[in-house]
Amino acid sequence: MTLHAAVIQKLLNTGSHLGRRAAEHHFKQYAYGTRNGMTIIDSDKTLICLRSAASFVANLARAKGNIFFVNTNPLFDEIVELTSRRIQGESYNHNRSMNLWKMGGFLTNSYSPKKFRSRHKKLCFGPTTMPDCVVVFDAERKSSVVLEAAKLGIPVVAIVDPNVPLEFFEKVTYPVPARDSVKFVYLFCNVITKCFVAEQMRMGIKDVVKDLAE
């Protein structure tokens, strides 16, 4: 089995190709076909988009940028929080993971420390500095976040499914077409983390060599 085939098989094992419903017209570029009225997402295109997002994250690490994670699904809480901690620990940036259910203006408001109480009685923290990237785990459910990020010119990396409306899809800078299963979200976060940390380590080695040369 080739490396490409192995990676595609790993994507298939996460169920990322199983769309929940028929695709909107603008999403059909990522569709492989349909089955029982449901969209089958082309895993090759998911991989291409995932690589593009990972490359952007690596460039962000090189520039010492901040990533802000937005999660609305309790099933992903542990994965997202672990990803945020790992990136923060390696980059020393002010990255935050955040669970949002219903809160507008979290980006467009001032960047002073602020707290919110969700309807699930969970304490949430808004960003205290302008993020350089927003990672969204469901572009449709957190459409307000996508719109606010676009308004501020902040790049958005998001998992998008076949029924995400065009008005939100167009504002996602790096869309990753896939079903947001727990297994795929884990893989997605793992790829982002490894790319970010690897680039930080590479830059750290460069700095050490530069210091030795001086």
Automatic annotation (TrEMBL):
Alphabetical GO biological process terms: translation
Pfam family name, one: Ribosomal_S2
Keywords: Ribonucleoprotein, Ribosomal protein
Gene3D superfamilies: Glucose-6-phosphate isomerase like protein, domain 1
Molecular function as annotated in GO: structural constituent of ribosome
InterPro entries per record: Ribosomal_uS2 (IPR001865), Ribosomal_uS2_bac/mit/plastid (IPR005706), Ribosomal_uS2_CS (IPR018130), Ribosomal_uS2_flav_dom_sf (IPR023591)
Family: Belongs to the universal ribosomal protein uS2 family.
Protein name per UniProt: Ribosomal protein S2
Organism taxonomic ancestry: Eukaryota, Viridiplantae, Streptophyta, Embryophyta, Tracheophyta
